[in-house]
Specification:
- The chain is of the alpha/beta class.
- It has a nine-stranded mixed sheet, sandwiched between helices.
- The longest helix has 21 residues.
- The chain starts with a helix and ends with a helix.
- About 2% of the residues have low confidence.
- It binds alpha-D-glucopyranuronic acid (GCU).
- Alpha-D-glucopyranuronic acid (GCU) binds next to helix 1.
Length: 399
């Protein structure tokens, strides 16, 4: 993945060099060939964030019940119409699955490995989702990370600490490329009857992928080895964005972990730092709906920003992970998004990050909104995993 991201970043560096005016002085230790963008904190414009607690009507919500009943659905709707596109359907009526194989002696006898195939529309020749599930041997049902990934490597410390991992490759549902024809795509197959073609608020790839993560939960809830109250979602980079959107929509995810998710994941787009709405919708327009790109030149008109996506998790815990040398994702913007989600957690009587200033490197903070910046570059490391499990241990009362 690091390799693939590097290639993508190189390609972007070239295209952005041509597209952007002279970039400001980079932070001192930034590599010379790092992707060009605005990285000067002094040049971040002044902006006003939309208030998550104010209804579209202008009235303020004052209680957790009002948030859940009135404001949460409004915000979900805004993220659907203006950003990711509409999720047209939940669990398809005909969905079923088959356990293809079980290995009770995986990872040197420490784990159980299951291969499961989900037939999304019931038909064996229809769209499907293949799951690689590795669960630690345990007398009790185990907590599980649903992980979106194109590789199937499981980090050994996860199993050692008593957590399971359910991996699924989102590109099995929808390819990660531009100009996928609507005809025959999953988007078409799941569209409401009578819809003849894509609409401006039709879901993009991130939406389809996030929907897939929810379908993984449909299966996991029935697995006798899994604790259905301790199912989490985790993704890195573009899949970190996906994990965020999945966790925002589906309250069955007990904890959400957007890792180096950046723009469209957990950072404030109004800052214009690192990857902008324009940059992301120029190169990856198909990740979002068509309307999102229309805000590229006036992001302040976007009725949402990403503190509100984090707030959609409330009161469920969320953990945002960033990396020191990953300016493209705007680490500080991810700190500010986390911080500005706190008022919604406060309605539920829960503390968010508990700090006002960005903490030093590798000093994780946060009660219900966890946050860290670790050493190193874009990606997922053993350090990240260890902190995620510390956080989950605390919330699941594991010792
Ligand atoms: C590109 C893209 C990012 C994305 C990343 C990835 O760098 O600009 O938004 O997160 O690819 O998914 O690796």
């Amino acid at each position: 993945m690091a390799f693939r991201s590097t290639l993508i970043l190189r390609a972007l560096a070239l295209s952005l060099l041509l597209a952007l005016p002279a970039a400001a002085a980079p932070p001192p230790d930034m590599p010379k060939d790092y992707v060009k963008a605005q990285y000067d904190e002094d040049l971040v414009p002044k902006f006003t964030l939309p208030d998550p607690l104010v209804l579209n009507s202008g009235r303020r919500v004052r209680t957790a019940a009002e948030w859940t009943r009135l404001r949460r659905p409004e915000l979900l709707q805004l993220f659907q119409t203006e950003v990711y596109g509409r999720t047209p359907i939940g669990r398809p009526p005909g969905e079923r699955w088959e356990v293809l194989s079980v290995d009770r002696n995986a990872m040197g006898g420490r784990a159980i490995y299951e291969k499961v195939r989900v037939y999304l529309l019931g038909r064996a020749d229809g769209p499907k989702l293949d799951l690689d599930i590795t669960l630690p041997k345990s007398r009790k049902r185990v907590p599980v990370f649903v992980m979106l990934s194109w590789h199937s490597k499981v980090e050994p410390q996860v199993i050692e600490r008593g957590y399971g991992v359910a991996l699924y490759d989102p590109t099995q549902l929808y390819p990660d490329k531009r100009d996928v024809p609507w005809e025959g795509s999953l988007r078409q197959q799941l569209a409401p009857p009578g819809q003849a073609g894509p609409r401006d608020d039709d879901w993009g790839a991130l939406g389809v992928w996030a929907w897939g993560a929810s379908r993984v939960v449909d299966y996991l809830e029935t697995d006798p080895l899994v604790n259905r109250h301790e199912i989490m979602v985790l993704g890195v980079s573009r899949y970190g964005k996906t994990a965020g959107w999945a966790g925002a929509q589906d309250t069955r995810f007990a904890i959400t972990f957007p890792v180096v998710s950046g723009t469209g994941g957990a950072t404030l787009v109004r800052r214009g730092y690192g990857e902008t709405v324009k940059a992301i919708t120029d190169v990856f327009p198909y990740w979002f709906d068509k309307r999102f790109a229309t805000y590229a030149s006036h992001v302040n008109d976007l009725p949402v920003d990403w503190h509100e996506l984090i707030a959609l998790m409330a009161p469920r815990p969320v953990y945002i992970a960033t990396a020191e040398r990953d300016w493209w994702t705007d680490q500080h913007g991810q700190f500010l998004a986390a911080k500005n989600a706190a008022p919604v957690y406060a309605l539920f009587g829960e503390k968010g990050m508990g700090v006002d200033e960005e903490p030093p490197i590798e000093s994780p903070v946060g009660d219900y909104i966890g946050w860290h910046k670790r050493h190193g570059v874009h990606g997922l490391t053993p350090y990240d995993w260890a902190r995620f499990m510390d956080f989950a241990d605390r919330h699941f009362h594991r010792s």
